[in-house]
């Protein structure tokens, strides 16, 4: 059987299991779990790869153009902002991802950050552990029931957030130009324009992917439109929010607080002012994690690669326009 080289660029993040290796080997794949840092290292390791599995490393146009044999790039997870998809398409490389996992995990994390920020859980915890027992220092806290939750984007995860938030009595609105009002209404959610969402929401929760149109979607102008009593929660992508503007907004009281699972720079600079603010709750981009979710993600990732090595299009194709000229077509067995 022909052997195909499969390179994982972040082999330390998602070590392959024997079961996953067997799936690749059954399709002729030979797995290479590497830890690649920087464009030159990626080019050197992936130039002759037939398939590339990628997580956090940036696959630049130059790196992708150097992949002379690659038929598929598989992104572990939902977002494909680490892959230059237009370049992959131009080169005939099929891009696949795993868009249908971690709905509960991320929505649960969003709810936990909403509760932690509005109820000031972390700040109170730190005061008590520091020897201060004074509930008056929590003032002001406002009731969840009857307040407005604004969802930026209304995909699967945001819909899961809406379902769970409804139990707390939130009025829920959303901004998503790609969703029909009747679809939102099925989830007891009202669609509004972006500026209305910013003005009316007591909590703004971000669920949009990162692309050219959403980079710094929330900047100084947007933060100034929010209520001084409002909270910002981000479990999407860090660069959707201008971190410098957010730090200023939190220090100067344009908004009341923030809960962030993602930051503009990860890991953050030790001097990032967000790290030292009492009205910010931070977690280390872990919202998608449970053992069960990551097992599902890895399995679906290698299944997508194995399909491509058999000359089949993966279950999920991020760039369907590649299909007429896809390199994987040459791997199809003759009929």
What would the keywords be for this entry?
single chain, 335 residues, alpha/beta, Rossmann fold, 2 domains, 7-stranded parallel β-sheet, 5-stranded parallel β-sheet, 12 helices, 12 strands
Overview in brief:
This protein is an alpha/beta fold.
Task: Provide an overview of this structure.
- The protein is α/β, with parallel strands linked by helices and about 325 residues long.
- The protein folds into two domains: about 5-100 and about 290-330, 3-Layer(aba) Sandwich (Rossmann fold), CATH 3.40.50; about 105-280, Rossmann fold.
- The chain has helices spanning about 20-25, 40-45, 60-65, 85-90, 105-120, 120-130, 155-165, 180-185, 195-200, 220-225, 245-250, 290-310; strands at about 5-10, 30-35, 50-55, 70-75, 95, 150, 170-175, 190, 205, 230-235, 255-260, 280.
- Strands 8-7-6-9-10-11-12 form a seven-stranded parallel beta sheet, sandwiched between helices. The protein has a five-stranded parallel beta sheet with strand order 2-1-3-4-5.
- Strand 1, helix 1 (about 20-25) and strand 2 (about 30-35) form a beta-alpha-beta unit.
- Helix 1 (about 20-25) packs parallel to helix 12 (about 290-310) and helix 5 (about 105-120) packs across helix 7.
- The longest helix is centred in the C-terminal third of the chain and has 19 residues, at about 290-310.
- It is elongated, with a radius of gyration of 22 Å.
- The mean pLDDT is about 95.
């Amino acid at each position: 059987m022909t052997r195909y080289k499969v390179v994982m660029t972040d082999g330390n993040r998602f070590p392959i299991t024997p079961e996953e290796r067997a799936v690749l080997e059954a399709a002729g794949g030979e797995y290479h779990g590497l830890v690649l840092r920087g464009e030159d290292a990626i080019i050197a390791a992936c130039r002759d790869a037939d398939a590339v599995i990628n997580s956090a490393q940036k696959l630049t146009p130059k790196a992708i153009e150097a992949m002379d044999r690659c038929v598929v790039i598989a992104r572990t997870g939902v977002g494909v902002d680490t892959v230059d998809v237009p370049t992959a398409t131009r080169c005939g490389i099929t891009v696949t991802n795993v868009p249908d996992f971690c709905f509960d995990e991320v929505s649960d994390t969003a709810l936990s950050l909403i509760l932690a920020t509005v109820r000031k859980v972390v700040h109170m915890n730190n005061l008590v552990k520091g020897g201060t027992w004074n509930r008056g220092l929590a003032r002001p806290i406002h009731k969840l029931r009857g307040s407005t939750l604004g969802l930026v984007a209304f995909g699967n995860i945001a819909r899961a957030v809406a379902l769970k938030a409804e139990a707390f009595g939130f009025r829920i609105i959303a901004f998503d130009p790609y969703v029909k009002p009747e679809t939102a209404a099925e989830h007891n959610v009202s669609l509004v324009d972006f500026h209305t969402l910013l003005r009316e929401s007591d909590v703004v929760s971000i669920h949009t992917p990162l692309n050219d149109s959403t980079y710094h979607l929330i900047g100084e102008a947007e933060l100034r439109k929010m209520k001084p009593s409002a909270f910002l929660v981000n479990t999407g992508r860090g660069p959707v929010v201008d971190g410098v503007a957010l730090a200023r907004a939190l220090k100067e009281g344009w908004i009341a607080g923030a809960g962030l699972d993602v930051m503009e720079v990860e890991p953050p600079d030790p001097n990032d002012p967000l790290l030292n603010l009492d009205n910010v709750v931070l977690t280390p981009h872990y919202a998608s994690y449970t053992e069960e979710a990551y097992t599902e993600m890895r399995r679906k990732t290698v299944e997508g690669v194995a399909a491509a090595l058999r000359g089949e299009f993966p279950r999920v194709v991020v760039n369907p326009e590649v299909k007429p000229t896809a390199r994987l077509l040459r791997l199809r067995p003759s009929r």
